[in-house]
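Exercise 7b. Backbone tokens:
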């Protein structure tokens, strides 16, 4: 399972928006999910946080859920990304690939 695959997996079609960054059914942690898919194709720009994107998780209980990357709490497993300098967002490419080249 490639979290950064360009094609959305089937299981995200039933995903529900989790307002807390955990499974809305069993409150399982994102780090315990069976599958993960990051919607890197559609980042949303925000004034305060630069941009955010949808992160889909397929929980062990069978629930598919998603939340905004900006809502992901920093932890020892998922450290917060450093804030890039303002000039980073003013490149010719409006969506520079933050995950590196394919
Ligand atoms: Zn669950």
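Sequence design result:
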């Amino acid at each position: 399972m490639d979290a950064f695959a360009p094609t959305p997996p089937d299981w995200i079609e039933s995903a529900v928006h989790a307002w807390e960054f955990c499974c809305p059914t069993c409150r399982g942690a994102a780090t315990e999910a069976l599958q993960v898919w990051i919607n890197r194709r559609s980042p949303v720009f925000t004034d305060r946080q630069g941009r955010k994107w949808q992160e889909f998780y397929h929980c062990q209980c069978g629930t598919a859920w998603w939340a905004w990357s900006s809502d992901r709490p920093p932890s020892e497993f998922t450290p917060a990304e450093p804030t890039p300098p303002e000039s980073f967002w003013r490149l010719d490419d409006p969506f520079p690939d933050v995950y590196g080249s394919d």
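Instructor comment: Residues 91 and 97 are 11 Å apart (CA to CA). The first strand starts at residue 16 and ends at 17.
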